[in-house]
Structure formats: structure tokens, C-alpha cells
Amino acid sequence: MHAGTPVRPVPAPVHRVPVAARVSMALTGALLAGVLTSFGQAVPGLSSLSNSAGPWFVVAAALCLLAGARSGRWATPAAMVLGVVLLELMHVGYWATTNLRGYPDVLSITNFWVLMGVQAGLLAGAVAVALRSRDVGWRGAALGTTAAVLVGEGVRALLQVADTTGPVTWVVEIVVGLAVVAFAVVTARTPLGRIVALGTGVLGTVAVLGAYLLLAR
Length: 217
What we know:
The chain is mostly helical. It contains 9 helices and no strands. The N and C termini lie far apart (81 Å).
């Protein structure tokens, strides 16, 4: 080696986190989300947020991503099942913490939100898979769906429960949802991606709002 020749450092090997560890972290995170939700309902300014379903959907999708959700013959169904498990673990964490805090709460397989957790969990897992896709259409649909859940719930709350909860939480939820769909449209690399993101956001919002209004009767 010639004098003065710089020595290039050897890059350290990249150690990937095992799948089992990532799934364990996701499951633990779901329980913790349920625990924090129970405590959050007692905090002024957070009670409305803790009573909303949109953030749980976002958390479930994020935890699926943490667990390594990806597309594939078996990987996609596994991610969707994981989404259901995560949402139901949030219910378990909330139920256990609420009872331990001295507020009786019943967890039943016939509970409306437990049943809705199955459908929302499947969707959250699918959204996580789509976000990892190289297809701009799937990514746009995933972000549009997420935005639709937030905006749809926010609009429904402003129409039906804002008198008792105040409008701030729901306005913030709507703004975040609009920001998500705007991000999807701006960052889409093709016209198809933009159309899919915007179309999914708009049509999804109508569907979510309609479902809320129908079930609230």
C-alpha cells in the first residue's frame, strides 16, 4: 500500500431484526395502545381522541408495517390476519386497564367494536401491504383509504357528537386525513397514482361516513 493512500473503513454488517421479534414488538405495541387509550380517556383534551376509532386503525396499520407486512401468496393474508389480531389486542389492553382502574367494562365477541375490529383489521393489514408495494396505484389506494377513515370519522363526529365532545379533535382528524391524501397526490409519480389516491380518498370518505351514519341510527 502506498503511503498516503486513505484507508476505507469496512462497512459494518447490517443485522436484520428477526421476523419473530418484529411480530412480538407489534403485539406488545397493540396491547400498550389499548392501555394508553384507557388512561387517555381521563385526560382533558385527549378524551375525544381516545374515544375515536381512526387513530386505532392508523396504529394497527403502522404496527403491521413494523412487523414486516409484505405482499405474497401467504404474506398478504398473514398481514391481514395480523391486523385483526392487533386491533383485538388493543381491545384486550383497553378492557383490562379500564377494569383495573375501577371502571367496569365488558369484553365480548358480540361487542360491536370487537366485530368491527375484524373488518378494520383486515383492511389495516391490506393497507400496510399496499404501502410496501412498488405499484403506485396500490400505494395511492393505501394512503387514500387511510385518509378516508380519518376524514369520514371526523365529519361524522362533527355532525353527531361535537355538541358534547367539542369540535377540535374532529377538525384535527379531518385535517390530518386531508394532509394524507394531499401527500399521496403530490408524491405520486404517475397520473394513475394521483387519480387512485384522490378517488380512493373521496369515495372511501363517503363510504365511511355513510356507514357511521347508518350504524348510528
